[in-house]
Write a structure and sequence with these properties.
single chain, 119 residues, mainly beta, 7-stranded mixed β-sheet, 11 strands
């Protein structure tokens, strides 16, 4: 199995920055894509940003220019630098990783980390 451990959430004021981290661990696995999703109360879980093994990134329109996703392939870790945070960024942020392991393909999710932005 592949497990994801997230860190870095918290309560901040609008305009402040936060950085989320997510590390993947397991035995005999490779990671193709890693990304961040978020889910606000009463809403669906939506993509925030993702990055593939080649470094190509994809962002939600609402975070372009404010958030930056990066990845350390050697550590199987993905980061989300969130700048100029807004109250509407408040949500539970989930890490996702997809790739291959000994028994085939996997699609793993982290437990989620709360980000709350006050006005």
């Amino acid at each position: 199995q592949v497990q994801l451990v997230e860190s870095g959430g918290g309560l901040v004021q609008a305009g402040i920055s936060l950085r989320l981290s997510c590390a993947a661990s397991g035995i005999g696995f490779s990671v193709h894509s890693m990304g961040w999703y978020r889910q606000a109360p009463g809403k669906q879980r939506d993509l925030v940003a993702d990055v593939d093994s080649g470094g190509s990134t994809n962002y939600a329109d609402s975070v372009k220019g404010r958030f930056t996703i990066s990845r350390d392939n050697a550590k199987n870790t993905v980061y989300l630098q969130m700048n100029s945070l807004k109250p509407e960024d408040t949500a539970v942020y989930y890490c996702r990783a997809r790739g291959d392991y000994e028994w085939g393909k996997y699609d793993a999710w982290g437990q989620g980390t709360q980000v709350t932005v006050s006005s």
